[in-house]
Amino acid sequence: MPLFTALYDRVLRWSAHRRAPWLLGALSFAESSFFPIPPDVMLAPMSIARPRHAVRLATITTLTSVAGGVLGYLIGLLGLELVLPLIVDAGYEPAYEQARAWFTQWGFWVVLVAGFSPIPYKVFTIAAGAMAVAWLPFVIASLLGRGARFYLVAMLLAWGGPRAEPWLRRYMERIGWLSVILLLVIVLALSL
């Protein structure tokens, strides 16, 4: 049984639910501070299912993601010693150490790029708090980076809309497994 196609079909059905924007916001918030699944997995099918609401969905995703990022920042600032063992156990320690090194070198720009990239954003939010990066630039960079990513996803899929859905469904297994491989390559590269 195809794993990613079945998940995609289920998320597409959920995206039509009247409470789906609330679930999207909750997922976005959680992913930015502690949860491993990115909100794109809900935002993409929701933007296909509701193309006229794509801007609203991207806004919800961006704002709740940044709010979750602020929670991650506070975790790093106030409770790093409590969560550091979890970071190590989850295999994020190399990424966390790399994020700390990048903050020392590039500051604001690291948050901006991390917000847009597939690298786990939560690692950067916690590292930013642990290093006491200036709060306002952190929030601004998060808004710009996360906003750019989520508006791009939402608008592209809303634009493709019903035309994109059959193509996505047909290639979902390949896209899903390629995403897993890409994530593993990133984790391996960061751990070296």
Describe the overall structure:
The chain has eight helices and no strands. The chain is mainly alpha-helical and 192 residues long. It has one domain (3-191).
Which helices and strands, and how do they pair?
Layout: H1 3-15, H2 20-31, H3 40-49, H4 54-89, H5 93-106, H6 108-116, H7 121-130, H8 135-191
Helix pairs in contact: 1-3, 1-8, 2-4, 3-4, 3-8, 4-7, 4-8, 5-6, 5-7, 6-7, 6-8
Keywords: Membrane, Transmembrane, Transmembrane helix
InterPro entries: DedA_domain (IPR051311), VTT_dom (IPR032816)
Organism: Spiribacter onubensis
Distinctive features:
mainly alpha; globular; transmembrane helix; transmembrane; VTT_dom
Strand content: under 5%
Quickly count the helices. 8
Q: Write down how many β-strands occur, each being a DSSP E stretch of 2 or more residues.
A: 0
Structural class: mainly alpha
**Sheet of most strands:** none
The percent of residues in helical segments reads: over 70%
| Count of domain modules | 1
What value does the Rg take, in angstroms? 17 Å
**End-to-end span in angstroms?**
35 Å
Average pLDDT rating: 83
Q: Multimeric state of these chains?
A: single chain
Helix/strand order, N-terminal first: HHHHHHHH
Low-confidence stretches: none
Q: Using the alpha-carbon principal axes, give the shape.
A: globular
